[in-house]
Amino acid sequence: MSTETSNKTFLLATGNRGKQREFAQVMAPLGWQLRGLHEFDLPEVEETGLSFVENALLKARAASAGTNLPALADDSGLVVPFLNGEPGIYSARYAGKHGDSEGNMQRLLERLADAEGEQRAAYFYCALAWVDHAEDPTPKLALGRWSGHILKARQGDGGFGYDPIFQPLGDTRSAAELLPEEKNRLSHRGLAIAELLPQLA
Ligand code: ITT
To answer: Angle at the Cα of 144 (from 135 to 43), degrees rounded to 5?
Structure first.
């Protein structure tokens, strides 16, 4: 069966390389054929939703509309209850510039400079939205949450985004020090993918 006609072919609607890598690690071995946004010339989607799930759906619908492929989008981020949910849906541009992970971590460390113990509790959150076509009235949705604490300094250089300053509950390592397969088993994204897969069967 060619890639074009496989019913396991879909567009992964993300420009984030860290996310792309993690989806490929989990889904490609199961026979899914992931197409990438870089193959198409699509306009930027405005993430105007107030929640992760709304933004995931906006991104999935826009990507499917522009390609006529089923599309899967991920909207995710880090939530710190002590900071009233910051950086939340603004995680990618917390320090101003989209995708500036160093700046984003720096800003969060500064905001938590005087915080101790449970004040440093945080969780990663991931909303996945899959649409079969742009106007799909029954999108498939899946959520995942990964709890931990914000470290006082960066540790490790694996993963992406805020991983070097996030320590999962029950671990002494940061998320950036986990093996990729460990992160994929435990993480907000790994859990959301595990919840999505049976819906695609
Ligand atoms: P797309 O919209 O193209 O998917 P994005 O990076 O803009 O890419 P989001 O709006 O969902 O995606 O922002 C997610 C941000 O949250 C991401 O840029 C990281 O800073 C952070 N993030 C999400 N998952 C993460 C993870 O597993 N590890 C570390 N940081 C993560």
So the answer is: 40
